[in-house]
Design a protein that fits this description.
CATH architecture of the largest domain: Alpha-Beta Barrel
Radius of gyration: 22 Å
Order of helices and strands: EEEEHHHEEHEHEHHEHEHEHEEEH
CATH class of the largest domain: Alpha Beta
Oligomer: single chain
Number of helices: 11
CATH topology of the largest domain: TIM Barrel
Number of domains: 2
Shape: globular
Largest sheet: 9 strands, mixed
Length: about 375
């Protein structure tokens, strides 16, 4: 859009902040549901089918908010023409593009769970929200079923309460992590609850169960799992071709792996992408592997392969030495605004378990995040 659309603040009320829901009326061919979070600066976060997230500028947020109010296409156009100085045909084209983008997501769900800079013109966020876009839910620090936990792990109902509290705070995406989260027998139930609320859900796991037991994988998919981060060791005895079982599913899958000193993983990584991996993530396993990791990053970037840099790492019990993980300089500068809820309900900044901000069982999100 050539013009920068701005509503005159003296004439129009701002788009109301809050969290809104919408479902297409019965009889509409393309059924979908939307959840919209309107931020204080009138930009927004739109969740489509609890599977993909669109970050909207002020114009796109106003369109989405009107849609939430049940306004028809002609009513949205009429109200928007009153609000913005723009030609009618141009605005109608923008609305069609907006609807088409939603339908593209509805018809092609196997894509990255987070999309950015959507809307019409690019507009800066003048009053960013303290609330994150994503929260990691660390269900356990255990790696084996017989292993004891350093935490008093929450019950299923307690986790549901924290998920609901997170949803009410307007946070659209959660990633279930551990330890090994598949050790929790209630993982499917928690995924189902997240899906019912309309949140985007991910899973970080190292479990071979995901590609060895198709029935278990299907139970996760049927519960509403939207994306998977699978930890895989290239030097392990497991054959990476076994991952084809996962790649064949309608599930956005990122494979993360360590880069060891002297390893050459370019051809192996390309093979994962050719087999169906949607994204890759990797890290230097030791100091001497930094150059190899940086070189691999450059090689894959040149191939325009999606590389994820700001994903959470699993939590290990204090009794076990933490594996060395050297973060690359490409890691998002906004990582500080991603939080992890520990197995006992404590809230920390991502990967900083030694500095709890408080406990969400007894405190609200706004109180914990707003004062830091």
């Amino acid at each position: 859009m050539p013009q920068t659309l701005r509503a005159t603040s003296t004439l129009f009320e701002p788009t109301p902040t809050g969290f809104y829901s919408y479902h297409t009326p019965d009889g509409v061919p393309n059924q979908y549901r939307l959840h919209l979070r309107v931020l204080p600066d009138e930009t927004g976060i739109l969740i489509v089918n609890a599977a993909s997230i669109l970050r909207l500028n002020q114009t796109g947020t106003y369109f989405a908010w009107l849609k939430m109010q049940g306004k028809s296409e002609s009513e949205i156009v009429e109200l928007s023409l009153q609000r913005y100085k723009v030609e009618g045909e141009l605005l109608k084209d923008d609305l069609k593009r907006f609807d088409q983008e939603i339908l593209t997501i509805v018809n092609d769900p196997d894509q990255a769970p987070l999309m950015t800079d959507t809307g019409f013109e690019t507009s800066n966020t003048d009053q960013p929200s303290d609330m994150p876009l994503r929260v990691n839910l660390c269900l356990t620090d255990r790696w084996e079923s017989q292993q004891s936990s350093d935490y008093d792990e929450l019950s299923t109902e307690q986790w549901k309460g924290l998920i609901r509290k997170t949803f009410d705070a307007g946070i659209p995406q959660v990633i279930f992590i551990g330890g090994e989260p598949t050790l929790r027998t209630d993982l499917v139930e928690l995924l189902q609850y997240t899906e019912e609320l309309g949140m985007v859900s991910g899973l970080l796991s190292t479990s071979a169960l995901l590609y060895q037991d198709l029935g278990y994988l299907e139970s996760l998919l049927e519960s509403g799992l939207d994306h998977l981060i699978l930890e895989f060791e290239p030097q392990s005895a497991q054959d990476s071709t076994n991952l084809q079982t996962i790649f064949n599913q309608d599930l956005f899958t990122c494979v993360r792996f360590p880069v060891h000193r002297g390893s050459d993983l370019y051809a192996w990584a390309i093979g994962l992408v050719d087999a169906g991996a949607n994204a890759l993530s990797f890290y230097a396993a030791d100091l001497d592997a930094n150059d190899q990791a940086a070189h691999l990053n450059q090689q894959l970037t040149n191939k325009e392969i999606m590389i994820e840099h700001d994903l959470p790492f699993p939590l290990y019990p204090a009794s076990i030495d933490q594996p060395a993980r050297l973060f690359s300089p490409e890691v998002s500068e906004h990582e500080y605004n991603i939080y992890t809820i520990l197995p006992d309900g404590s809230l920390i900044r991502q990967d900083l378990p030694a500095y709890p901000l408080g406990n969400l069982l007894t405190t609200d999100w706004n109180e914990l995040v707003g004062k830091y």
